[in-house]
Design a protein that fits this description.
113 residues; alpha+beta; 4 strands; 34% helix
């Protein structure tokens, strides 16, 4: 069986700490929103034109904030119902990506110690 290479996005402990501390969505209630607040880790910073273009796809009450190589998402109706999926963001932004919910981001931070 042929093997397949899977791209991986890596962030240092310090970078994950900054991602958590700079969350533009503010403090997250883990019980209520731990799976509704997500971070998409990008392989590179997307072009400014692509960042501007993506804004038209945000449908309230969803929120999207771009900060460097991270996309912060708020999907109150659930990530599975959102158009702002990982594949969608990869295609529209033209970079590799992986998305994790807030609970997973906090676990990654804990594991990075």
């Amino acid at each position: 069986m042929p093997t397949r290479n899977m791209p991986v996005e890596i962030r240092t402990h310090r970078e994950i700490s900054d991602i958590i501390n700079n969350n533009p969505l503010g403090p997250v209630d883990l019980a209520k929103d731990g799976t509704k607040v997500l971070v998409t880790f990008l392989s590179a910073e997307p072009a400014a034109a692509k960042i501007a273009d993506i804004q038209q796809y945000i449908a309230a009450p969803e929120q999207l904030f771009m900060m460097g190589k991270e996309v912060y998402l708020y999907c109150p109706n659930g990530y599975g119902k959102s158009k702002l999926s990982n594949n969608f963001l990869e295609k529209k932004l033209g970079v590799g990506a992986t998305t994790r919910n807030w609970k997973s981001v906090l676990k990654l931070y804990e594991l990075s110690l």
